Amino acid sequence: MENNHRNVLVFGEVLMGKIVPITLELLAIGRRLADDLGEELYLMLLGEGTGRLGEEAITFGADQVYFSEEKLLNQYNSDLYTHVADSFCRRVLPSVILFGHTDIGCDLAPRLNGRIGGGLSIDCMDLSIDKEKKHLIMRRPVFGGNAIATVISNRVPQMATIRPKTFQPLEKNLSRQGDVIPLEEKIDPSLIKARVVNYIKEEVEGVKLEEAEVVVSGGRGIEDKKNFTLLKELADLLGGAIGATRVACDEGWVPAHLQIGQSGKVVSPKIYIAIGLSGAMAHISGCLGSKYIVAINKDSEANIFNVAHLGFVGDWKEVLPPLIERLRELKGK
Amino acid sequence: MNIIVCVKQVQDPEIPPSKFKIDPETKQVIPPAGVPPVISVYDERALEAACRLKDKYKAKIVAITIGTDKASEVIRHAISMGADDGYLLCDPAFESKDSFKTAYILSKAIEKIGAFDLVLCGRQAADWGAGQVGSILGEMLTVPVVSFACDIDVVDTGLRVKRVVSDGYEILEVPMPCLITVSSEVGLPRLPSGMRIMLARKKPIPVWKATDINIEHSLLEKGHEHTEIIGLVVPERKSECEIIKGTPKEAAYEIAERLVSML
User: Fold this and answer.
1) Domain for residue B230, yes or no?
2) What angle do CA B27, B29, B31 make, to 5 degrees?
3) Residue A256 has what pLDDT?
4) Chain A CB contacts of B230 below 8 Å
5) Chain A neighbors of B261, CB-CB under 8 A
6) Regions in chain B scoring below 50 on pLDDT
C-alpha cells in the first residue's frame, strides 16, 4: 500500500479524570504494532483535564500524546468527536487507528470511517502486522462467532475496534520518554446536529452484568418469567448477576438489557452458569471469554457442552433447588 | 413522514453450530440445506421502530434490500409488518462484502426513491456484522447520524431518540432528515396479520439494477473495496467438558462444592 500515512494512533477514553483500562490495553497492542512497523505510537485524549494525563500515558507506551482541553469535548458527542478525530487524522495522517469496542468506539469508529474513507473492522480479537507489506492484519468473529475472518484494509487509515480485556496493559515504565502536545483547534458548537438532552442511568439491582464475576444465564428451557427468580436467587448467593439468551428476552421473561450474545452484551466472568440454554453460537459468542463455564441441560447433544468445563445432563428444575440449598449451607459455615 | 428502512437477508443465526459450514477457498459460508434465510435481527427491529412511528403519525415506509432474487422475501416480510413499498436492488455487480460499496448502492437507491425524513438501518448485520453501513450511508447522504436507538419519537425540533449505552440510555434530539441505526432493545417485532401477509404476497416488488439507480459501475469493480477478507476459518472447539454423573441432587452438591472453591 503506497501512501504517506505513518504511525499508530490510539483513540483514548477518560472517565472521572482517569485513563480507562481499555485505553491502556490499546496502548499495549498499539506499541507492539508501532514497533513492528518501525513507527511511533500516538494517543488522542479529549476533554478538560486530559493534558495532565499525558505523562502517565507515555509510561504505558505512548510516544506522543495529543490532547484537547476543549470544554465541549468533556462529554462524548458523536458529531464533535467525529469532527475532531477527522480533522486530526487529515493533518497527522496515521496509518493505523485503534478504538475500544466500547460505547464511544462503536459509534465513533464507523462514523469517522464514513467521513475519512479508510478501512474498518470492528470487534477485533487479534491484530498483527504483515511486516513485508507493512499492513495491519485483523481477526474478528463473524456469523455470531461461528467463524473467524481475517481482514485487511486496502485504504488508510486502517482502523479497528478491540474488545476490552483482549490485551494486557504494559507494565508502567517511568523511564519512557515522549511528548505531550495540545490541540489548539477551536470547536464550532454549531457542528452539533444530534444533541444529548438527557441521560438515564439504569438502576441495576446488585452487580452489573458486564462487571460480575459470576453470571447465571437462562434460555428457552427456563420456560417462564417466574422461573427466572430461582436463577436470580442463585446469582445473588454467588454475588453475581443474571443474563439470558435472545429467546428468553424476546419472550419477555427478563428485560432486553440482560441479553448476552451477538446482539446483546459481551461478558467475561470468572464463572458462567448456563441453565436451560442450548448454546447457539449467537449466544456463546457473548460469553466465550468466561474462565469457567458450568452447563445444566436436558439434551446431552446441546452445543453448550462443547464449550462448558463442567456439565450435568438433566432437568435444571431438579438441580437448582438443592444447589441453592447446598450453597447456603456451605456459605453459612 | 417518509421513512426508508434498509434491510438485509441473512443466514439464520440461530442454527446449531454443527450445521455451519464454510468454504475456506472462496471465503464464503455455505447456506445450510433446509434452513431458510431470515431478515437480519436488527433490521427487523428497525422495521418495528418504523412501524411504531407509522402507528402514531402519518408515515410512509419504504423498505430496500440488496440481494439475489430470493431477497425479495425480506421485502415481503417488511410489507407484511407494515411497510408500504419495497424495492429489491439486484445486480451481479452489487455482490460485495464491502461496507462502502453497500452504502454507496443504498445511497443511490435512496436518491431515486426521493425525499426522505428518516433512514433506518439495523446497527449491524447478523452475518458479517461489519457494523458501519449505517454510519457510512449517513455520511454519503450528508445527514446527521444517531446510532443504537431503542426508541424514536417525533418532537418539534425533529426526532427524540433514546439511545442504548452500556449503563443506561441517552436521550438525543436530532433534526430531520437524519439516519438512525437501531439496536435490539427496541423490543419484539410485531407478528404480521394474516391480511398483511396476503397483501405482501400480492404486492409487486420492483427490481432495480445498477443502471436503474445511476450507479457508476467503475466504483463497484474489484479493487475498490476498502476492506478485504483474506481468510475464513471455523474455530476448533475441543470438547473437554467434564460431565457429572449421578442424581440431580448429587450433581447439585458437586457443583456447589466446585463453585465455592473457586470463589
Assistant:
1) no
2) 155
3) 83
4) 137, 150-152
5) none
6) none
Interface test with A, best of B106, B123, B135, B163 (most A CBs within 10 A): B135
Domain count for chain B, please give it: 1
C-alpha cell at B15: 442454527
Residue burial A189-211, b: 16+ Cβ < 10 Å; e: rest: eeebbbbbeeeeeeeeeebebbe
Residue B247 within a domain: no
Domain limits of chain A?
8-191, 209-332
CA distance A249 to A252: 5
Q: What pLDDT is attached to residue B194?
A: 97
Q: Which of A161, A174, A154 is nearest to A124 (CA)?
A: A161
Residue A275: exposure state from Cβ atoms within 10 A (0-12, 13-18, ≥19): buried
Residues of B in contact with A130 (CB under 8 A): none
Strand pairing class (B28-30; B21-23): antiparallel
pLDDT given at position A165 = 82
**Where does the pLDDT of residue A333 fall: very low under 50, low under 70, confident under 90, or very high at 90 and above?**
low
Nearest chain B Cα distance for residue A173, angstroms: 32
Give the nearest partner residue to B138 out of A114, A141, A262, using CB atoms.
Answer: A114
Whether B229 and A305 lie within 8 Å, measured CB to CB = no
Residues of B in contact with A311 (CB under 8 A): 241-244
CB contact under 8 A, A155 and B17: no
- Looking at every residue in chain A, the average pLDDT score rounds to 94
CB contact under 8 A, B235 and A148: yes
Nearest CB neighbour to A153, from listed B15, B131, B226:
B226
CA distance B120 to B47: 8
Closest to B172 (Cβ–Cβ): which among A110, A194, A252? Answer: A194
CB contact under 8 A, A312 and B251: yes
User: For position A324, what pLDDT does the model report?
Assistant: 96
**Which of A81, A121, A151, A260 best probes binding to B when mutated, by most B CB atoms within 10 angstroms?**
A151
Give the tens place of pLDDT for each residue, A93-136. Answer: 999 999 999 999 999 999 999 999 999 999 999 999 999 999 99
| Cβ contact A282–B13 (<8 Å) | yes
**Residues in A touching B242 (Cβ below 8 Å):** 309-311
Q: What are phi and psi of A253, to 5 degrees?
A: -70, -35
| pLDDT single digits (tens) A204-237 | 777 888 889 999 999 999 999 999 999 999 999 9
Q: What is the complex's ipTM, to 2 decimals?
A: 0.93
CA distance A138 to A141: 10
The CATH code belonging to domain A209-332 is: 3.40.50.1220
What's the CATH number of domain A8-191, 1.10.1040.50, 3.40.50.620, 3.30.830.10, 1.20.120.520? 3.40.50.620
Chain B residues near residue A137 by CB distance under 8 angstroms: 230
CB < 8 Å to B134, chain A: 110
At A224 the three-state DSSP class reads: coil
Split at pLDDT 50, 70, 90, the class of A1 is: low
**A163-188: per-residue pLDDT in tens?**
888 899 999 999 999 999 999 889 99
**Grid coordinates given for B125:** 448485520
